[in-house]
Amino acid sequence: MLALRNRFDDLKITGVDINENHCTKALELKIADEIKPFHEAIPAADLVILATPVNVMLKQLPETLELIDQSVVMDLGSTKSKLGKSVANHPRRSRYVAAHPIAGTENSGPESAFASLIKNKHMILCDRTLSDPDAYQLVEKISRQLEMRVSHMNSEEHDRHIAYVSHLSHISSFALGSTVLDKEKDEKSIFAMAGSGFSSTVRLAKSSSRMWAPIFTQNQDNVLNALDAYINKLQYFREIIANGDENNSSRLMDDANDIRRILSGIDNS
After folding, report:
1. C-alpha–C-alpha distance, residues 234 and 211, integer Å
2. Which domain holds residue 227?
3. Domain CATH number, residue 129
4. Which of 24, 31, 118, 132 has the fewest CB atoms inside 10 Å of its own CB, making it the most exposed?
5. Are 40 and 64 in contact (CB under 8 A)?
6. Is the pLDDT of residue 269 over 50?
């Protein structure tokens, strides 16, 4: 919202939140100009942006489409297939644009917002043919005006890819954090030895469980496939370490180092 406000001077932002503290803070921080109840705010908006946990969106998106006429509705959720299916037969489905900004931090709440969060980040827009051209073009135009890189794919493709590059990394971080916390119960000094590598790897474990548990559920099949592949790789790594096989250990790590080249190409694109 702060990025939108900085880009468009005449914008009026109406916030909706069931948390009164969040509403108060959003007004204080000028994230929103006003706060209204859901059923009052939606019909008056030209563009509706849903940014709630994905399990809430499953109920919220059909309700939103019931309240609009020709307004555009977009979501910012991390899963797409189930959400799209929830409104597949809705008469106003074409006013909805499925969007996923690949941007965010492990923090949540109004205080965590900052205007540069999405600059130069990636916006994935899904299911172009299911949205009205004017609705899809509006969301794409706004994304580019906010200096985001835009790509297009279908929901199934999105959910399959995002399971590996986002959902799996969060699961790994949660599991690592939990493992170390279990160990810390016996060895109180373990965190005194934690360096920047541990901090960067476990950073995502500070993310909201209320947001991530529904994501893993909605993208269950893809997440399980990603987890199986990851567990197999961990098991292989364990075996070569157990065998003292430094050649294969080095080979695995050298192969993994190629991620630097790939990510560098993405950053520079």
Report:
1. 27
2. 158-267
3. 3.40.50.720
4. 24
5. no
6. no
Low-confidence winner among 57-61, 139-143, 187-191, 210-214 (lowest mean pLDDT)? 187-191
Distance CA 267, CA 269 (A): 6
pLDDT at site 202: 85
Among 74, 45, 46, smallest CA distance to 61 is for 74
Distance between CA atoms of 32 and 17, rounded to whole angstroms? 11
Claim to verify: residue 136 and residue 196 sit in the same structural domain = no
Q: What is the pLDDT of residues 15-41, one digit of tens each?
A: 999 999 999 999 998 889 999 999 999
In this structure, what token pair is assigned to residue 149? 């890189």
Q: Are residues 130 and 165 in the same domain?
A: no
CA distance 124 to 103: 11
Q: Do 186 and 206 belong together in one domain?
A: yes
Structure tokens at 194: 């934690």
Give yes or no for a contact between 16 and 32, defined as CB atoms under 8 angstroms apart. no
- Give pLDDT, residue 267: 56
Report H helices in the chain.
2-7, 20-28, 38-44, 54-67, 81-86, 133-145, 155-162, 168-184, 196-202, 209-218, 220-242, 246-257, 259-267
Query: What's the Cα-to-Cα distance from 199 to each of 142, 177, 194, rounded to whole Å?
Result: 35, 10, 7
Number of domains in the chain: 2
